[in-house]
Amino acid sequence: MAHTHQIRVRYAETDAQQVAHHSAYVVWLEEARIEALRTLGRSYRQLEADGTLLPVIAVNVRYRQALRFDDVADLVTEVSVDSPSRISFATAVCHGETLCAEATVTVAAVGADGRPKRLPADLVALLD
Amino acid sequence: MAHTHQIRVRYAETDAQQVAHHSAYVVWLEEARIEALRTLGRSYRQLEADGTLLPVIAVNVRYRQALRFDDVADLVTEVSVDSPSRISFATAVCHGETLCAEATVTVAAVGADGRPKRLPADLVALLD
Amino acid sequence: MAHTHQIRVRYAETDAQQVAHHSAYVVWLEEARIEALRTLGRSYRQLEADGTLLPVIAVNVRYRQALRFDDVADLVTEVSVDSPSRISFATAVCHGETLCAEATVTVAAVGADGRPKRLPADLVALLD
Amino acid sequence: MAHTHQIRVRYAETDAQQVAHHSAYVVWLEEARIEALRTLGRSYRQLEADGTLLPVIAVNVRYRQALRFDDVADLVTEVSVDSPSRISFATAVCHGETLCAEATVTVAAVGADGRPKRLPADLVALLD
After folding, report:
1. Is A23 on the interface with B (CB under 8 A)?
2. Which one of A9, A10, A11, A70 makes the best mutation probe of the B interface by having the most chain B beta carbons within 10 Å?
């Protein structure tokens, strides 16, 4: 079950090569993860308020084709539960038919105290 | 008494016009304010830990000359206490002899609870 | 004639005060300007491709109320032609009924060579 | 031969978890690459002016320990030539004795026209 989120490249996200800077994708990926959770019925803001934070522990991005200012890209994300405390998000960044980047981001649950914890059972149920 | 802080334009801070994006200056100004306070003997991190936050309430920037990737700029900052709870920082952003931007940023003291408060007396004494 | 553009505060745009960083507004204002032009029938990307760049020459922001992660804000923008080469955008950033920030941004037309030029006549006609 | 570059976490780089946002590391890694090249005697700005751009084609980061506002981190980078057109940079982000993140970033040479090209021979000689 993939979730699609659309972004439009901001001027501030471009660089002197006149394409989107590679760090901008990392921010879009986060927005796509949050929107994927929302679509599944979970607000990440509420999740944090309820005592579960999901800091990023790994980011992998392969850049294949540049995006320019004002381009609209689709971020197609698949979510998978890797372990009782980890979730991975695999995202394809597409511009029309063109695959511009592929990414995997892994997050790990911690409590408000910063200590590792298990993912909430209802979140795991949602994602499975 | 002006304080000078040097920054080098990051590639990530450039945009498709191949100059530093105007929002990058706002981030540099903050870095310059924090370094000005440090030079005066106050760590902004410690100030926050001690219960005084200084959120920005006003930003004014006039952009005169563009900066490019890898340019080194001097941010020359003068600090003034505007009121018992407000500080203003006037900064000139210079590239060699060239004035690239002029800015004024005002911050207002609030407590950890977000409520307005007076500036700590020792901070006011330092700045005066 | 005001134009409204909606943004949602990204996690990456928050800071350690757990609110949107003041520099994020500057990026949103740019997005709002570009969307205001698009609504009026002008693509800023096309404008640049046609040889008119609109670098920012002044930014003024007054911050009144903080925005938090995931908040949705309306940016209500009015456009005015200040001179044959300058446009000002006055924007109110609102969260529901709350005015969170007020801003004015001025841009000045330059050619692809970086030299000042007049605004294209059709753009002025659109904005008037 | 490792090159060390120091950064200080900017307030703007923190997020609502009160630590440096994971995307900030990607920007620091770029700064560290550029400083590593400078130490070796090559200005990346000049490299681009001479017709060789080095866009990023892959980013891998493992985050181990958070950095907070005002922390000073050492980015220890080793450079290796992967192929006639690719360079990899392996970086450890350290806070004192603590390893905070490990990253590998790969760049590929393209010309000003965006077409793949070989790395300049003198750059390869420098890096070997």
Report:
1. yes
2. A11
Give the model confidence (pLDDT) of D13-51 as tens digits. 999 999 999 999 999 999 999 999 999 999 999 999 999
Pairing of strands D86-95, A86-95: unpaired
- CATH code of the domain covering residue C93: 3.10.129.10
Cα dihedral across residues D6, D10, D12, D14: positive or negative: positive
Q: If you compute the radius of gyration of chain A from its CA atoms, what whole number of angstroms results?
A: 15
On whether any CB of chain D is under 8 Å from the CB of A27, the answer is: yes
Cα dist from A55 to A90, B103, C51, D13, D70, whole Å: 16, 35, 44, 15, 20
- Closest Cα partner for A6 from A26, A27, A31, A24? A31
Cβ–Cβ contact D69 with C under 8 A: yes
Q: pTM of the predicted model, to two decimals?
A: 0.98
A116: closest CA among A80, A84, A81, A88? A84
Q: Evaluate whether A25 touches A102 at the Cβ level (below 8 Å).
A: no
From residue D28, alpha-carbon distances to C11, D4, D5, D21 in Å are 19, 12, 9, 11
What is the distance between the alpha carbons of residues A118 and B88, in angstroms, rounded to a whole number? Answer: 46
Is A66 in contact with D55 (Cβ distance < 8 A)?
yes
Strands (E), C1-128: 3-8, 56-63, 72-83, 86-95, 98-108
**Among the listed residues B108, B105, B110, the one whose alpha carbon sits nearest the alpha carbon of residue B92:** B105
Helix, strand, or coil (residue D80): strand
Tell me the one-letter amino acid at A70. D
What pLDDT was estimated at residue D128?
86
- Whether A27 has its CB under 8 Å from any CB of chain C: the answer is yes
Distance, CA of C36 to CA of C123 (rounded, Å): 12
A124: three-class secondary structure by DSSP? helix
Residue D109 belongs to domain spanning: 3-127
The label of the residue with tokens 């850049």 reads A63
pLDDT digits (tens, 9 = 90+) for B69-89: 999 999 999 999 999 999 999
Could you tell me which residues are beta bridge partners of residue C116?
C110
Residue D99 CB neighbours (<10 A): 13
Number of domains making up chain D: 1
First to last CA, chain B: 10
- Residues in A closer than 8 angstroms to C70, CB to CB, are 34, 43-45
CA distance linking residue A5 with residue A103, whole number of Å: 14
Spacing of C-alpha A82 from chain mean position = 15
Contact yes or no for B108/B57 (Cβ under 8 A): yes
